[in-house]
Amino acid sequence: MKVKVAQWGNSLGVRLPKAAAESAGVTAGSELDLIVEGSGFRLRSVRKTSAQLLDEMLSEIERLDLTSPTVEWGPDIGSEIIDDDYSRGLIVEGPDGTPIRADKTKSKRQAGKKNGPPRRR
Q1: What is the pLDDT averaged over residues 69-91?
Q2: Is 0.70 topped by the overall pTM?
Q3: Residue at 23 is within a domain
Q4: Of 29, 36, 64, 92, which is the most exposed, with the fewest CB atoms less than 10 Å away?
Q5: Which domain holds residue 29?
Q6: Mean pLDDT, the chain, as a whole number?
């Protein structure tokens, strides 16, 4: 794809055609890497890391003063009650230490079954 170089202040500039910019995911304000290769050069999109994006978002929150006041919930009690499968004893530690669901009701077949290999008839 051919493009023309134009004077832009003391520098030179190149306009990117809309189709080329869209296919590369480039918008106004995007950062590009200019890589000089011999007698030519190449432009490459700069992908920001998660840490850079998070830093930008946090900076914007501070700039816009989007912090909320601390809500006072009263004094700490210490151990609030959580009603879940663990607290009800439905999940227990298995033989290898991993959590397993406790069997509260065994089937009739399992109730009379003893540990050991199955018997052959």
Answers
A1: 75
A2: no
A3: yes
A4: 29
A5: 14-66
A6: 81
